[in-house]
Write a structure and sequence with these properties.
Chain lengths: 405, 139
Amino acid sequence: MLKLPIYLDNNATTPMDPRVLETMLPYFTQHFGNAASRNHPFGWQAEEAVDYAREQVAKLIGADPKEIIFTSGATEGDNLGIKGVFEMYASKGNHIITATTEHKAVLDTCKHIEKLGGEVTYLEVKANGLIDLQELEAAIKPTTILISIMYANNEIGVVQPVQEITAIARKHGILFFTDATQAVGKIPVDVNKDGIDLMTFTGHKMYGPKGIGALYVRRKNPRVKVTAQMDGGGHERGMRSGTLNVPGIVGFGKACELCRLEMEADTTRISVLRDKLETELMKLEEAYINGTTEARLPHVTNISFKHVEGEGLLMGFNKNIALSSGSACTSASLEPSYVLKALGLGDDLAHSSLRFGLSRFTTEEEVDYTIKAISETVLKLRDMSPLWEMYKEGIDLNSIEWAHH
Amino acid sequence: MAYSEKVIDHYSNPKNVGTLDKASKNVGTGLVGAPECGDVMRLQIEVDETTGIIKDAKFKTFGCGSAIASSSLATEWLKGKSVDQAIAIDNMDIVEELNLPPVKIHCSVLAEDAIKAAINDYRSKNGLEQLVFEEKGVH
């Protein structure tokens, strides 16, 4: 039976898998010890649970457990990874290369570094959402210490050519950091095969709890270190102080294990649903997929429906379907998504976009309902849209002198 | 953000969606906003030649629910009013009627601008001078 509302905003956060919750529960009340308490069984038990989870997390990404630094989530990992490298390798240089479509946690961290005297190059992306490898290599300077490129984009799901990027980084002896928040648990990520030096990811995007994430920091070839950004008890090999969030870590570990074991089956099923959703919605006139479809997360699609406004579109069904739009009419700035604009989309198309993120729990019935509801709303709003009427009359909308306000 | 019931009602059952003959001498058309800004309103009035009363009003809007509701409400209010009465419609009346939150006030301003643009279009077609309105500048 179809249960409303339907949740298709899984790039924002995923529901927690009930198996994860079950694993966590004893660690709130029964095994509540501090993993740093070395003198009694409560501490030992907590430490053991953390060690086990650390293995589960490491295994998902092909890392050694010692290379996993637990954090509060991806934003902290972005800050610790980038600022930590900037401080630790200050004697080598002060230049960082990143891209304009990165998450705000990366972009704002880089802005902060610029204020501290660092230099940052923001690479533009191509119309398909991917960076240009030649441009990347051309941006490298003798002072470059870090390349920070996200694994997969949170709005359009495009997957960057990480192995090619790391080959360039290696060639020039530059560290590579990646925000892999949307990728880990969804597609195979292997830090050794991919040549990644530092990587952040988080539990709540992969059916785990919120408030727990990890920063992978390579220990061999090369041995990488980051300067701690929080002073304290020297937990996590001195890189991240603070009492460990044991229940969160246990849940995160379990979530990683489930993703590792079920990724293939999940991907097969979810990508069929995503493709159905996309194919059916693309049957509407003047619908455009944003970002390449050739290198993309299996559960994501981002579509613009020209001549209808995203927020108005959402209103047609958002009581029953949870989605997000690249339009930001609610904010005072009225600025649409900077990611979509970076692809070269006009503001009109950026304002007309919807982002779909499916999950392990999405059903075909939900997808069918969504196709119908969105198609109907698009048609209804186009009947109401002066732009659609002009388009249909063959008027070039660019020829009109709009009153920009 | 939660919408008021009145906004939802206008969005779900918009009044007076449609197109009047913009070539007609009795029809005034106002097209305001810009696609880049995420909202465009086209509001039209049809004025009765003998009485000077607005006998019909239509709109089409590209925009969020509040923009659609503002224009739908504006057309309701326009019908039956004289052109002079229509000029007096203030965006804050729309804000009040629809319970628009501060971030949506620009939708009501756009509706007021559309009314004024439609009236001026009608006036120019009929050899009357253009009215000059004060800038609201809330966008």
